[in-house]
Amino acid sequence: MESLEIAVNMLQNRFTQKNFKLLCNVEKFILYAANNSLDDSNDYFQSIMDFCYSDIDVEKLKVEALIIVDFFQSVIKTNQMNIKQITKISTICEIFNSCEVGKEMFKEYHKLTKLYSTIPDTTATSERRFGTLNRLKTTIRSTMTQSHLNHCLLPHIYKEKIDKIDPRQIAFKFISSNEKRQHFFGLIL
Length: 189
Known about the structure:
This protein has 189 residues and is an all-alpha fold. It has two domains: 2-117, no CATH class; 144-189, no CATH class. It has helices at 2-15, 18-35, 42-52, 58-78, 89-98, 100-105, 107-117, 124-136, 146-157, 159-163, 167-176, 179-185.
């Protein structure tokens, strides 16, 4: 029960942070501007000013937000994309990549999407590790010590790097480091 309570408290802390609400507002602005012509959304622009400080010229962004919906609709029609409404930031990036002129025409909006896209998803790595832990620590292995569990997890987490290692070299080093091993296993060439 205590661990469940800790997990719930951590989730509540994660999603009630000021920055989380700020990032949600920036994402809402990006998507809303892509689908609708903005009249005046001071809440959104205040969030953008808080998020980007001096990276974005908010006055230019306001002007771009008024007409960018027409640009997106024309690119979608021209490229015959099957998109009714833009619901993902990745779709906006795809549209910008398909039409280089848009990046120049809507510099501030493009900068905002790039800044938003570079925010790291800090929980993804730890979530993958916990998923690995659940798969690794089965009921059969539930009695293993913490250090043994860590030694089993590390190769699984860094699988790409370990796949590049030649097992014959490891075996050769292991065997050649001890005379008893050399006698028992023989020499591997």
